[in-house]
Amino acid sequence: MGISGAKILALTVENSSFSKTVPGLQVAVDSTSMGNYKECAYKYFLINICGYAPRHTRIALEFGILYHKCLEIFDKELAKGTLRDKATLIAVRYAMENFGYRLDSKFYPHITKDTTRTRYTLVRAIVWYVAEYEDDNLETIILKNGKPAIELSFRMPFEDYLICGHIDRMARMKSTNTHYIIDRKTTKTTLSSDFFKRFSPDNQMSTYSVAGDVVWHERVSGMLIEACQVAVGFSRFERGFATRTKGSLDEWLNGLSSWLGKMKLDALALHWPMNDKSCNNYGGCEFRKFCSQDPGVRMMFLAKEFTKRIWDPLKPR
Amino acid sequence: MQQEVNPLKEASPESISELFDKDPLKLTEQDLTTIVSRLRADRVQWKKDDQAKRMNKGVKKKGGGIPKDLQLDLDGLK
Fold it and tell me: Is the Cβ pair B29, A119 closer than 8 Å?
């Protein structure tokens, strides 16, 4: 790769999750960073260290962020005692005002080729979500500090690192009096049992399951994935479980220790090797086209076609 | 005791696309109420259509398919 430690330090200077003394060593790690690293160390280098992000995913990302934000607003309003209909209007207003940008005081909604992720489908997803779960068996847990367990950031010491993340909601299932960490997903994939199978095993769900026990000391029975299939003509919702036994969490933590060790070795060597067996996963890695270029010219193409975004797990959302 | 008025009960018949074309900062409570009411109605319609579609699929399957107890995978038996 032939990149100097000084250059790596400069690339990560604004990212508080990276060591300021060991170039390229991430000391606060979340499931996204670890997920990238597990997939391909070179992809991790490009995204997490260099800060490259594909331009086309920006709207998809923004759609997901706003979907989460609107439902966070809705849940918080409900927890405050606001009527359901009023809370819906507040969440819808937020979606209407934020899925777009202002130029010379004129509002422009985001427009993409992806017709499933528009301001209209966002607002529809919010309204249909509220209708879908009108008589919900889940209620948001109120934490010991009196705050509703919504949009919780956590930091958990593990060996020489901080494992951090962000959970959407913790809720109690009224019928069984069991607690779950809720993770919301938006997808274009048809919802079926196959969709939920992908979360066991899964890096993110295992991280959150560990956090439930360690950080909030709540008896968490597992993860509940609340999926929203976003299509042009409809939004469909399904919930699925991703449970973990104590044994499987211990096994996952052992694995995490090994992966963090590998991450450190790569940082010390200033070398993040490409995993060319991952290039074709999930319809093809977004960097595949660039990785196929000669390393000498690759960075020039990347700078042209990709945007820059700092992924800092320590920054509150 | 005065009951709080349900804001979603009185939606005006304004076009939803007109409301989406408006500057969002100028949307009134009534505008938002209209949007929500329309989308809720769309959902009710979609649910009906979706259910009918599933029922049709079920009927077709029932007529032409093999009964469940005859769908045994004999090759998989040891």
Answer: no
Question: Do A38 and A137 reside in the same domain of the chain?
Answer: no
Per-residue pLDDT tens for A163-194? Answer: 999 999 999 999 999 999 999 999 999 999 99
Please, is A246 exposed, middle or buried when counting C-beta atoms within 10 Å of its C-beta (0-12, 13-18, 19+)?
exposed
Neighbouring CB atoms inside 10 A of A190's CB total 11
Mean pLDDT, range B23-49, rounded to an integer? 96
Q: What angle do CA A129, A70, B32 make, to 5 degrees?
A: 80
For A131, which of B7, B27, B40 is closest by C-beta distance?
B40
Nearest CA among B49, B38, B59, B36 for reference residue A70: B36
**Domain ends where: A244, A261, A282?**
A244
Optimal mutation site among A93, A191, A238, interface B, most CBs of chain B within 10 A: A93
CB count within 10 Å of CB A307 equals 13
Rounded Cα distance between A97 and B25, Å, is: 7
ipTM, interface predicted TM-score of the complex: 0.86
Task: Enter the pTM of the model.
Answer: 0.85
**Whole-number Å distance between alpha carbons of A52 and A291:** 13
Residues 6+ apart with CB under 8 A from A42: A272, A273, A274, A275, A287, A291
Q: How far is CA A92 from CA A21, A230, B41, in A?
A: 46, 17, 16
**End position of a domain, from candidates A244, A277, A296:** A244
- Domain of residue A46 covers 5-54+253-308
